[in-house]
């Protein structure tokens, strides 16, 4: 039995891109959960933490990591915001209707 937990391994580059069309609700969920994870972790290297989160989160792997990173790059500072509208969406004020 391995002594290391599988999610502590480095993400594989092959797993960073989604395959096929991504439903809007799944994209929104991935971006909002990624934002919450980074907010809770407050990592020194957000890019590495985001890649590790993406690699070990089953539903997020269906969404390309680059798309999640692009959405997070435009996240407003201050206050509470959530992503809505799928890949063509934007940041909206307030909490997300679905956690």
Write structural notes for this entry.
By secondary structure, this protein is mainly α. It has 3 helices and 2 strands, in the order αααββ.
Pick out its properties.
99 residues, mainly alpha, two-stranded antiparallel ribbon, 2 strands, 38% helix, globular
Instruction: Name the strands of the widest sheet in spatial order.
Output: 1-2
Average pLDDT across residues?
A: 85
Shape: globular
**Helix-strand category:** mainly alpha
Mind telling me the C-alpha Rg? 14 Å
Largest sheet properties: 2 strands, antiparallel
Strand runs, count: 2
Count of helical regions? 3
In terms of topology, how is this protein built?
Layout: H1 24-41, H2 46-56, H3 65-73, E1 81-84, E2 90-93
Short description, anyone?
It contains 3 helices and 2 strands, in the order H-H-H-E-E.
